[in-house]
Design the sequence.
């Protein structure tokens, strides 16, 4: 499993209806994209759910590297670059994925929590702890699914959870970014498996 996220911060007075229209008219293009586990079309709106910015921030879980490459070098991403400029694409290797009790529902919210490992921390211990904690996270009522991923270049762990409730109804957690899900493409959700990825 591979994870990918880019975050396009927009002006404070940007009409987020433009992004909503973009997702409504183009989002279904990835509903059957080969190699894609899921893509959550995420937005943050200034003044909503504690956000200080307007942002378009899709988050992807891929079950094949070929799928991710096909997207990045294909027409979909080229269209985004043409409209918004080339964003920084963060990417991580997958550690574990779990469906939650609301996996059959349409998620309305996402929570992304990033954590840098301390310089002296054993990465194997940190990964084991994060994978163990994922089972409890994914089992919470209202959770669609949850994943934990890592960037071993910067030693950053990211926990990503999709929720059925609205962003304002999701429990607030220190350091967590809450987003609204406009659409979820999930052609290979089952191919992501359940549990740790090794």
Sequence:
């Amino acid at each position: 499993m591979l994870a990918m996220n880019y975050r396009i911060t927009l002006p404070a007075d940007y009409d987020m209806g433009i992004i909503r229209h973009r997702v409504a008219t183009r989002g279904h293009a990835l509903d059957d994209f080969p190699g894609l586990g899921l893509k959550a079309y995420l937005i943050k709106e200034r003044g909503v759910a504690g956000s200080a910015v307007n942002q378009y921030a899709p988050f992807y879980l891929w079950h094949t590297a070929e799928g991710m490459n096909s997207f990045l070098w294909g027409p979909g991403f080229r269209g985004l670059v043409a409209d918004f400029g080339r964003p920084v694409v963060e990417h991580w290797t997958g550690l574990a994925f779990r469906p939650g009790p609301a996996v059959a529902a349409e998620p309305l919210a996402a929570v992304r929590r990033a954590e840098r490992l301390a310089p002296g921390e054993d990465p194997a211990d940190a990964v084991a702890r994060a994978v163990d904690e994922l089972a409890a996270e994914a089992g919470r009522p209202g959770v669609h699914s949850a994943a934990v991923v890592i960037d071993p270049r910067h030693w950053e762990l990211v926990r990503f959870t999709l929720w059925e409730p609205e962003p304002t109804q999701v429990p607030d957690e220190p350091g967590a970014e809450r987003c609204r899900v406009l659409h979820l493409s999930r052609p290979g959700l089952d191919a992501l498996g359940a549990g740790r990825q090794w």
User: Anything to note?
Assistant: The chain is about 20% helix and 35% strand. Helices lie at 17-26, 65-72, 75-84, 123-138.
